[in-house]
Each structure stands twice: as C-alpha cells, then as structure tokens.
Amino acid sequence: MTAASQTRSLPASVTPHGGLPVRVVVMGVAGCGKSAVGRLVAQQLSLPLIEGDDFHPPGNIAKMQQGIALTDEDREGWLQQLGAELARHPEGVVLTCSALKTSYRDSLRAAAAGLRFVHLAISQAESLRRVSVRPGHFYPPSLVASQFEALQDPSAEPGVLTLAGDAPLESLAQSAADWLAGAHP
Asked: How far apart are CA 91 and CA 20, in angstroms?
C-alpha cells in the first residue's frame, strides 16, 4: 500500500476545528528516518512539514561537515528558531528535529503547548550504516557516536511515543498517526 493510499484526516475531535491542534516532532539520532517518517505522517494527517535541518545556520552546517559535533550553545539559536516555527503553526504541524536532550525538547515544548514527540529509536550500528550510505547530506558518519552520547531517552517523558526505527516506514508513519489521532492533551 502506498503512502498516498493511506492518506487520511484526523477525526474532528483532534483537528483544528475541534480546537486541539496536532503538533509533533519526529525525533531521533542521525539516520533514524526522521525526514521520511515525518513526510509520511504529515501527508497522512494533512499537516505541513518543517524540516529542522533546513534551519541550521551556515556555521552549524560547516562545523558538522568538518566532523565537529555541535554544542548546546550551537543548537540554542536553532532550537529557538524551530520553536518559533512551531508557534507559527497553531493549526498543527510536523517538525523533524533530533531533539536529543531533555532540555532541547523542553525548549520546543515551551513554544508549543501540547507538543508531542515520536522518537525513532535505532542502534548505533544501524545509524552508522544509514548515514554512511546517505547521498548528499551534510552530516558525516564520524559524528554518529556523538549523537548517541548526547541522546537522553525520552520514553519516560509525557507525550512521547517511542518506535523501533528499523520497522518499515509506512508502518512507523501509521503507528505515529494512529497514536496522534487518539492522543488528547
């Protein structure tokens, strides 16, 4: 079944007409499938998609291309900009963002009440494999280990769904969409 044939709308009780917008961050380490799953979830829920990587300032991209891991300070302005983007979409939105640390997720939550997170969990070996074969992306395989060092497990936080990121993309997107359709703040 294709993503197009799976496209559906949320029930009225959780659409903007019902007053409960769906704003979600598809998160995880490099190579976990954030962009692909985020795109499918956005299609299924008829929501706009914001690619968090598109908002990295040139200095951050240059550092990563050189194999230098970003610091909390490097990410601060980027996270503020992503928070502003979330706030600009009160009708609902899907954002892709690594959101590795609790403080990063809290920064995004402060910008968007009721924000939810779908964490795509994969092993370090799988992340390295995927990043190594990803064409044309600025993020090098040499930084994969730093992502796992920074990752703070979000599974105990409210409003978080953790999925095994090695499942088929369509299955991941459907699980996320079903969870979001049934989730109420």
From this structure: 8
DSSP state of 56: -
Do 117 and 105 meet the contact criterion of CB atoms below 8 Å apart?
yes
Domains in the chain, number: 1
The one-letter code for the residue type at 77 is: G
* Alpha carbon distance, N-terminus to C-terminus of the chain: 31
Coil/strand/helix, residue 132: helix
| Lookup result for tokens 């092993």 | 123
Return the CATH number at 61. Answer: 3.40.50.300
Does residue 113 form part of some domain?
A: yes
Write out the residue range of the structural domain in which residue 129 sits: 22-182
Question: What distance in Å separates the CA atoms of residue 159 and residue 180, rounded to the nearest whole number?
Answer: 10
| 12: β partners | none
pLDDT, tens digit (0-9, with 9 covering 90-100), for 138-168: 777 888 999 999 999 999 999 999 999 999 9
